[in-house]
Amino acid sequence: MANAAAIRNQIDEVLSSYKLSNEQLEYVRDQMTQNLFNGLHGKKSSLKMLPSFVRGIPNGKECGDFLALDLGGTNFRVLRVKLPEKSDDRVEVDSQVYMVPETTMRSTGEELFDHIAECIEDFLTRHNLADASLPLGFTFSFPCVQNGLDNSFLLRWTKGFNATGVVGKDLAGLLHEALERRKLQSHLTYSVKVKAVINDTVGTMMTCAYTDHDCTIGMIVGTGSNACYMESEADIKTLKKEQRLAGNGRMCINTEWGGFGENGSLESIRTDCDRAVDKESINPGCMIFEKMISGMYMGEVVRYLLLNLVRQAGLFGGVATDILKTKGKFLTAFVTQIEADRSHQLKACSQILDCLGYANTTLEERSVVREACVNVSTRAANLCASGVAALVLRSRDIETKLPALGSGDASRFRITVGVDGTVYKKHPRFRFLLSDKVSELCPNCDVTFRQSSDGSGKGAALVTAVACRLGENIEADFTTEDGG
Ligand code: GLC
Which family is it part of (predicted)? Predict the structure, then answer.
């Protein structure tokens, strides 16, 4: 019995560093706010705070037929989006998922863009559009410096992509060149013109805002994690003079919060498992916040945590199998499956452990594995909540300075966060943990989370629709006429 109690103590000890108090989460929220302001002022910050040149949420009047690309998550997608004349009608989306092999992700930019062009051509051919002329919105989910809507330069790769010769290049240019190369081979006559390059967070916000005018924050918790929000343009000090518009306008900022912590502000809460995951990644020292939250890394954090439990608390009789010791073998999908399983005997967990080389585990062992998953996913949701809280409170401050954007009631600030990403959508408790914690971290605010379906693709089409409607004056006129 004493032995069992001692083991329990060791397990609690190992897991304790994943339980963050509200005080710690408030600290994270406030650090995030500090970095946000530094980034807006062009001072040293781990948030890149990238202006998107999207100056308004949709007014629901956008319509037409568009192509959209979505690159940067688990899959690459080509979409055809039809925005109806009346916003009450359904937006029609045809889409096709294509694989981007890991070798292509990490080869040359030319190879990557040739692959994208080939997929676009395949899509056009399958949809009888091989001689069509369509404007294209490109959701490119990586940090980019923008000089305008269709003028976007990659700052650095994240999430396992590493194709050479793309950083610092104009993405629309790379895509156009690849399409021209492709057309020389196929002799097809389609004309595809990139009108807008946007981040997936921006697409998600725009899609939700199409129907919910209180939506001024977009967030992704998928392969990577990031958020954007509508900032007051006058406070974006990094904009050049010629990029500014007169007046009290807003502009959507891509925070790139995945990089939060790169300047050391999360060291007090990072664990040895976080450090191990970072060290083994292709970009050590980068995307510290993302590595504590998102789907690309969550399974890895659990794997290292299980190895610690084996070593320090004698889990599985103190034996680590070769599979458990292998990078990438504990998938984030396992975390979801284990936590979603309601069976008494924790059957899903048993099957997963079997695949990891642990046959015939005891119920106690499986419960500990489940607890490890719960601790890591709960911490991820809590950290995300700190980030959302920082953006909600900033948005509330902006609302007091500028004319209302949504249908807000002054006594209680109301805001909607548009969300997408596999972790948010698939994990059984993530969304509830997130929204409960956000309520605690920003009292007196009504924060609604709205899951966007096809957010990135539809969002790119929406931004493109406005770009086409307004032609040359896109940036000047891309505002809501009726307050949303
Ligand atoms: C990574 C990218 C970011 C993107 C996020 C979600 O953090 O750097 O641009 O929004 O993943 O896909």
Answer: Belongs to the hexokinase family.
